[in-house]
Amino acid sequence: MRFRFLLASVLCAAAVPVLAAPSCGTYTVVGSQCGTTVNLGWGTAGFGNDSIIGAAVSLTVSAPVTYSFTQLNSSLGTSYAGYFGIMVSVDGATPQVYTLANSNPITLSPGQGVILQVTKVCFDPTCTVAPPAGAVSNMFSLQIEILGASATDLAKLYTPLLTVRFLNSSGIVIDEEQELGVVGAPTKTTFGVPSVNEAATPATRYVQIGSQWTLPFDAFSVTNPSSTQSITGTVTLYDYSNNLVATANIPTIPPLGAVGDLLIGIPSNSTAALFPSSTMLPNPDSSGVFHGALVATFSGPAIFLAQEYNGDAMLNLVIY
Amino acid sequence: MKLRISSALFILAATIPAFAAPNCGTYQVVGTQCATNVILGWGTAGVGTDSLITFFIPPTVSAPVTFQLTQLNSSAGASYTGFFGAYGAFLGSAPKVQTVATAQPLTGGPGTGGILHITNVCFDPTCTAAPPAGIVPDMFSAQFQVLASSAADLNILVPPLLTIRFLDSNGIVTNEEQETALGANPTATEFVIDGVAEGATAADRYVYSGSAVTEPFVAFSITNPSPTQSITGRLILYGVDGSIVASTTLSASIPPLGAAGYLLIGRFPGDTLGLFPSTTVLPDPTNIGVSFGALGAAFTAPAIFLAQQYNGNAMLNMVVF
Question: With a cut of 0.95, is the ipTM above it?
Fold first, then answer.
């Protein structure tokens, strides 16, 4: 009897190994499924912002796909060990506070999608406590694990898409930007913005007529996707005659942390900035605006985003 | 003496073949350089918009790079054979009307660049003639040939970047979007926008409170990069549950090098700008007046597909897969 049981076990093991370990190619094997991760580097919720996260599954996948939060962090990353959650409405349902611990996986069948509206970041379960010192008050980053039945299914996946909305006091959208999730482990350490436009002098920078900026200025963010290692970096501004105009170091960013800076500071304002407010920029075409390129290099992989404010517009800058 | 000259020529020819035919890998060989094409699908200039085209040559290229305008077309593409030009100049220079025939190449060394500012499209040399019937009055597409000394230099090229600015009557920027030039020969024939949000009913759509639209709506454009073949296509709107909400084929083919712009849903009955009729009712399971879903587009040949979502006072340059 014992021999028969052993034989049956051996036969069974020989017959079903593909169920236990699917061929996932470059993806990760997770149980009987294939997995990948997606990083969303900088969402905002609260203080006049909300974020819409959309995920959709191709009609042609062979089986349901599951999404699970695997990281949810403030700008302090792992250097903050207290409570952190986000207030979320799933497909229009009543919002509730989700943390990494209480968020349930979302499983979507072929062709299905889900919309998450994130309205606040929370530093306690009631979402009423002020953020700890040094944390960006409305920023969050996310890592999502996606499980599919096969590498083929994961290859057909639509990457989760984050839309940040800037709202006025009446809830009207005044600006929007979109950030496509970074699939897999981020690897990029150098980034370029080929079109940076910024008011050339302190006197002409951050001047408004009503709600409109008279000349453009830029802001950027850096998110460290590593769960173990801090990163540092250097950002350099060039003009279009191959001259180095300014360079500065990015302070150390803790694991899973992030920083957001203005490119140039506002006079008499403590808002974080890379270059001092006194910075004078070349203005060869006498338009009052500097035109050039920005290069950012980090000691480890990063997620780099940038925006340009001009008039009433906020432009999500193309980064290569 | 004749033999000596022949020998000298033979020796010379034997020693310099690398100058005559560089190894350009998958790129074209053009004279002693390597070349590729880049395409900007939809710029606008005039009627409250202008376009900035940024050229930036990475500091790490080994030698100067040249950009030469090779195509400049209106939305009618090759089906319009009249005058077509763009009024503009590199920042700091005096603007003038430029056509494919008159545009001078831009050559820059490593780390250099420039911004071409286009303020109008022109249907005559004085830029005063009205556009012919059926042509989008402020639209242009452009193709550039890029010449570099090696395939390695072309590999690290930064594609030209188009920034469209929407301006109010005082010239203040109210919205901006950016489009990176596509390299060489576009190959994508299928596109998906998975974040479509649109007012659910005719009563919800295109309602304004001051300058702010109260519910979002979506617009998109298709540019045909082929100089020889027309294209047509089919578009399908899906709900978030994967159901097909609406589908249609383009009402007219897009001529070679032509383009078409649509609102996803028309503003009023008979609106020819609308892909789907204004009476279209979209699913609104949460009863918030907005429908969420995805738009799929499939064309008979490669296309450049761009989309924008208008919401409140914002215009979002949508991510297209």
Answer: no
Helix H, strand E, coil C: the string for B134-162 is CCCCCEEEEEEEEEECCHHHHHCCCCCEE
The answer to whether A309 faces chain B, any CB pair under 8 Å, is no
Q: Which DSSP symbol is given to B78?
A: G
Least confident of A128-132, B27-31, B182-186: B182-186
Return the domain boundaries, chain B: 24-183, 190-317
The class level of CATH for B190-317 reads: mainly beta
CATH dotted code for A190-316: 2.60.290.11
Say yes or no for a CB contact (<8 Å) between A173 and B212: yes
Q: Which two tokens stand for residue A46?
A: 């609260």
CA dihedral over A198, A203, A209, A210, signed as positive or negative:
positive
Give the pTM: 0.88
Residues B319, A178: C-beta atoms closer than 8 Å: yes
pLDDT, tens digit, 9 for 90 and up, residues B178-188:
999 998 788 99
Cα separation, B186 vs A214, in Å, equals 38
Contacts of A311 in chain B (CB under 8 A): 167-168, 172-174
Within 8 A of B321 by CB-CB distance, chain A residues are: 158-159
Residue of B nearest to A320 (CA): B158
The ranges assigned to domains in chain A are 22-183, 190-316
